[in-house]
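Chapter review: from sequence to fold.
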Amino acid sequence: MRTETSLVRRVGALTLAGMLLASCQTAPQPSPQTAAAVPAAQPSAVAAVSYAPASTAVARGYSELVMDMASGAELSSVNADAPRYPASLTKMMTLYLLFEEVEAGRVSLSTPLTVSAKAAGQPPAKIGLKAGSTITVDEAIRALAVKSANDVAITVAENLAGSESAFASRMTAKARALGLSRTRFVNASGLPDPAQVTTARDMARLGRALKTRFPQYASNFRARSFEHGGRSFRATNNLLGKVAGVDGLKTGYISLSGYNLVATARRGGQQRLVVVMGGKSEASRDAKVTQLIEASF
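The token string follows.
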């Protein structure tokens, strides 16, 4: 996700104290009509809101983690619990909740999702949805997995929960249920917000949960392009087709986070998941992930 908005500039100017204060605000609550469907967040020994980093903190080096996909064992890590902004890695949770809705039968792959003016007005990356139009769940999955489309993320959130804030409450509750104790979501896209925080370790756990719980959607993360409305959108994951065995998963970028990537790879019956957060460029991030993949096999 590549966007520089006035919000990014304002957030970049915040002091550490201000950011900590912002992150300690009460989590958004679901609307009355959706509250019953929102699972209660599980108590955590570590309050996620205490992990909001200063803009200077997220610029120092990488956070990284290498995991064996089959067992979930961590093979190596550096700064894996350092606070980070997830950027579009957020969409892994948006997809996780969408997959759950399909699994529960509350929506199908052919269900049309209505696009609001808010969703249509999101900054890039996007696929250019128009207010009042619709996109099917199947198309939404591909747009999120391949293009990391912000307009689609908000469309999914609003259609499943009534509002993005209600959906974000579900996201954080699901994070707690999955053991992501240092993650807090406040939006469905990963667009800049100082209260939306995570760690490399939490993103590794989420990536593994997403692919192991819902293997039937794996082809979406391997796809190198996505067609919609007569246009072709190239995958944001540059390692697909370039690094042997890479078969997903999700990229992310805002200026405060640096360049993030959760990548999965399979070779000789073994599977690896690599997380790198805080890259100074796409090229340096991709090189780091590639190095870790090669070393892990």
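Two observations follow directly from the output. The two ends are 30 Å apart (CA to CA). Residues 243 and 294 are 9 Å apart (CA to CA).
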